[in-house]
């Protein structure tokens, strides 16, 4: 153990808390999220002193969701700090969310004194084993001298290759050990020197022959389609996608969090003709999106049995798993640069009168016209469409920079995905690959600190809001520009939906498992902390609340009362178009 000794007593000493904080700062970390307590409170305070903004939450689960989304929005590791034992366990929600969405994040947890392991110490848990299923990398600083190296290894691992979650364990005794400042500085310098990020991440070589094959497939396609997802958004590939789409005239389909890489209003957008586009295309270039449940596994009946997939993914393992016709392993931005360069040497483009484009355009116009006819009606008591139209228009009126939209819920998220319009990259955060409920307020807070120039607007179902509603106090405490709109229909999917035969048994008079208190005053919750609350039930009330809250750019909750019979059960996304 590196305790202070006679050689260091005449020098200024640094403890593990300060060395950990300085290690984060040396890496370039500027934000942390978490819940403090024994043994990490001093670490958090030292991090603030080192120039890192610490956003303190009420619950580690929400803080973890914030850290994961921060990693996605910034491309830098989101940092979650928790106490040991139950704090670490709560933090695993965010860590697993980062892994499944492939976002860079590091969960740092304090742990019990190493001398007391196995003796039933305070909040003792084998946190390394607990974190392994949800981590790309796990590490433990067993001595103060290991702290910088352990930090840099975890941070590097989070962002290199396919991004993901990493775990770092900091035992209590290590945080209290001391070394001289000069030795600490030397250890940090050594960690910087060997960091793979500092040296430049190892680049994956993309064979020019494979790029040529991909371009030949696209050139000879009769019904091509470009599909892109949040992997392309993370890679900042929007300019390359724009060039590809507009040089080839190919229609495109974003996944929900790919929306905005190209504007939803683009003439080649095929979202409103999704079923036709994926069902009839013969070559699909899939960029930064996995052929999982969100894309029906790339299989029949949604896709044609003869479709040829060109899969662009940073992970060779993902390409091997999906077995596409052709795989291009590498960063989406860099791969598309090569594809565009190859196309430029021998250009090709679908004309606007091409039968494929005409078919998609016709179907898009039909579906949009049908949707707009429904949206045009002012239905009171509110259904989902009327307030969603009003919210859409209010968000579009903000202009650029466009607000970050956080969407969570069952019906609320499903309807919002079809109605709300994304015009700029990385401005939509939703339940993601796992369909995770409870992410809302954490994502809002991450977006507000990662994109301080943007307004953040959350459109939440009342069930989704309930998971993290107490974090409205966090919004007020840090005065973040977040407006939370709650679609209040009295429960999950809309309250009591039981059939008469299901209302039986000794507890039949209890509220239904899907029911909440009718007419809950969610807007009052934020008022308890000094924020602004609105209760709305008509179009004019909602328009007024949106106008006032958007202009103020202060924490607010708008409680939108929805007809409890307006919703439907929601699970896997159903696309009717």
Automatic annotation (TrEMBL):
EC numbers for this chain: 4.1.2.63
Ligase found in the keyword field: no
Group of enzyme by EC: lyase
UniProt xrefs under Gene3D superfamilies: 3.40.50.970, TPP-binding domain
Signal peptide (residue range): none
Biological process annotations from GO: fatty acid alpha-oxidation
Keywords: Lyase, Magnesium, Metal-binding, Thiamine pyrophosphate
GO CC terms, sorted: peroxisome
Cited InterPro entries: DHS-like_NAD/FAD-binding_dom, HACL1-like, THDP-binding, Thiamin_PyroP_enz_cen_dom, Thiamin_PyroP_enz_TPP-bd_dom, TPP-bd_CS, TPP_enzyme_TPP-bd
Record's keyword annotation contains Cytoplasm: no
Family annotation (PANTHER family): 2-HYDROXYACYL-COA LYASE, 2-HYDROXYACYL-COA LYASE 1
Record text on subunit structure and interactions: Homotetramer.
Protein name: 2-hydroxyacyl-CoA lyase
């Amino acid at each position: 153990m590196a305790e202070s000794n006679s050689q260091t007593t005449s020098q200024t000493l640094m403890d593990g808390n300060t060395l950990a904080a300085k290690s984060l700062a040396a890496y370039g970390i500027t934000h942390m999220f978490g819940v403090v307590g024994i043994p990490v409170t001093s670490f958090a305070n030292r991090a603030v002193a080192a120039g890192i903004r610490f956003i303190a939450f009420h619950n580690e689960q929400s803080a973890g969701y914030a850290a994961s989304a921060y990693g996605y929005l910034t491309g830098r590791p989101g940092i979650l700090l928790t106490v040991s034992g139950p704090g670490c366990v709560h933090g695993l929600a965010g860590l697993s969310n980062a892994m499944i969405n492939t976002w860079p994040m590091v969960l740092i947890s304090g742990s019990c004194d190493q001398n007391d392991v196995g003796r039933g110490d305070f909040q003792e848990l084998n946190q390394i084993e607990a974190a392994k299923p949800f981590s790309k990398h796990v590490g433990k600083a067993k001595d103060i001298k290991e702290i910088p190296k352990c930090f840099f290894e975890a941070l590097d691992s989070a962002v290199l290759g396919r991004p993901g979650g990493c775990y770092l364990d900091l035992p209590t005794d290590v945080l209290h050990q001391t070394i001289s400042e000069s030795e600490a500085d030397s250890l940090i310098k050594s960690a910087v020197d060997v960091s793979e990020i500092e040296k430049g991440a190892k680049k994956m070589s993309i064979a020019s022959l494979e790029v040529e094959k991909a371009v030949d497939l696209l050139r000879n396609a009769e019904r091509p389609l470009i599909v892109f997802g949040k992997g392309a958004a993370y890679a900042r590939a929007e300019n390359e996608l724009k060039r590809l789409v507009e040089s080839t005239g190919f229609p495109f389909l974003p996944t929900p969090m790919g929306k905005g890489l190209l504007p939803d209003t683009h003439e080649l957008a095929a979202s409103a003709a999704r079923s036709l586009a994926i069902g009839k295309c013969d070559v699909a270039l899939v960029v930064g999106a996995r052929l999982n449940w969100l894309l029906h596994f790339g299989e029949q009946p949604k896709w044609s049995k003869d479709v040829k997939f060109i899969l662009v993914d940073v992970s060779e393992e993902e390409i091997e798993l999906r077995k596409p016709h052709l795989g291009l392993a590498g960063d989406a931005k860099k791969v598309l640069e090569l594809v565009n360069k190859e196309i430029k040497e021998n250009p090709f483009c679908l004309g606007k009168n091409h039968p494929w484009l005409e078919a998609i355009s016709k179907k898009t116009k039909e579906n949009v016209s049908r949707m707009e006819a429904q949206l045009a009606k002012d239905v009171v008591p509110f259904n989902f469409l009327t307030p969603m139209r009003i919210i859409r228009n209010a968000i579009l009126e903000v202009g650029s920079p466009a607000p970050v939209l956080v969407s969570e819920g069952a019906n609320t998220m499903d309807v919002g995905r079809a109605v709300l319009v994304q015009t700029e990259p990385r401005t939509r955060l939703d339940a993601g690959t796992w369909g995770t409920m409870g992410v809302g307020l954490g994502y809002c807070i991450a977006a507000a600190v990662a994109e301080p120039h943007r307004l953040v607007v959350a459109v939440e179902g009342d069930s989704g809001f309930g998971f993290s509603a107490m974090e409205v106090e966090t919004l007020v405490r840090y005065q973040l520009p977040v407006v939370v709109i709650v679609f209040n229909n009295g429960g999950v999917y809309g309250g009591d939906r039981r059939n008469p035969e299901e209302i039986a048994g000794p507890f039949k008079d209890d509220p239904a498992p899907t029911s909440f208190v009718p007419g809950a005053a969610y807007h009052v919750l934020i008022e308890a902390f000094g924020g602004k609350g609105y209760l709305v039930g008509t179009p004019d009330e909602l328009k007024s609340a949106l106008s006032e809250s958007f202009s103020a750019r202060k924490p607010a909750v708008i409680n939108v009362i929805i007809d409890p019979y307006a919703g439907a059960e929601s699970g896997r996304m159903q696309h009717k178009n």
